[in-house]
Design a protein that fits this description.
This protein has a single domain (10-235), classed as Jelly Rolls, CATH 2.60.120. Helices cover 26% and strands 27% of the residues. The chain is an alpha+beta fold and 236 residues long. It has seven helices and eleven strands. The strands form two sheets. An eight-stranded antiparallel β-sheet has the order 1-2-9-6-11-5-4-3. The protein has a three-stranded antiparallel β-sheet with strand order 8-7-10, covered by helices on one side.
């Protein structure tokens, strides 16, 4: 389980995103046997619990880290790629705690919490968490919809100091359906927000980006009505 496709991985660097020219790493054909990992994720739905957006399940296992960490060691410590130095202690501690975590989301779950429309970060300068990178691996196969991950800027910056929820407290205070509509229009028509990239999430694709980058899932109507958006996630 979790063997990576050593000879067949296609590594793609998406460069120059936004005014600051940030980078995202894509690793296609990541797992040697993605169907095996997908099956484990499907079984994990029975143990999933509600999270901020959707549901998640966590399986403690040493195997994922043992078989995949080496490929990220070189990438995550490439200062020319990330324009900053990676904290080794935080990075190594994250791998010690790494298991198999999967996020499951349906469209109805997104629409029950309009905050998903507000681009967010996994860590903020003023609300810091020991997380430097986000790794997502798409486990929706070729027979399902995949959607993508959108990268945003706010006032031409890919990072904000703290969560933006308070800026939209008026919209979020409205009934859910009205809040979803109004917040979507507000963000999509705003001159302060700009979607600078969309990374398609295709089966067995891993994407790696910095945790203080504004992002949100690509929300396409009627995409996840009859199956989950299903992605393995690791915070490093």
């Amino acid at each position: 389980m979790f063997e990576i496709n050593e000879k067949g991985i296609d590594v793609v660097q998406v460069t120059g995103i936004g005014p600051r020219g940030i980078n995202v790493m894509i690793l296609d054909n990541f797992y040697q046997n993605p169907d095996e990992v997908r099956e484990l994720a499907l079984k994990g739905r029975k143990e999933s619990h509600k999270t901020t957006f959707g549901r998640s399940a966590f399986l403690p296992t040493w195997e994922f880290a043992a078989k995949t960490k080496h490929i990220f060691d070189g990438i995550c410590f490439d200062q020319d790629l990330w324009f900053t130095e990676t904290d080794r202690e935080i990075y190594e501690e994250s791998w010690k705690n790494a298991g198999f975590m999967v996020q499951y989301t349906r469209e109805e779950e997104w629409k029950s919490d309009p905050k998903i429309l507000i681009p967010h970060q996994e860590s903020y300068p003023l609300e810091w968490k020991p997380c430097q990178f986000v790794l997502k691996i798409c486990l929706n196969n070729e027979f399902e919809n995949h959607s993508g991950e959108e990268i945003y800027t706010f006032m031409s910056e890919t990072t904000v100091a703290k969560p933006m929820d308070s800026v939209y407290k008026d919209e979020l205070s409205k009934p859910t359906e009205e809040a979803w509509k109004d917040l979507g229009i507000t963000i999509d028509s705003s001159v302060t927000w700009e979607k600078v990239s969309t990374i398609p999430m295709i089966y067995n694709r891993a994407i790696l980006f910095q945790s203080q980058i504004l992002h949100r899932p690509q929300i396409v109507p009627n995409t996840f009505n009859d199956h989950d958006r299903m992605e393995q996630i690791l915070f490093l």
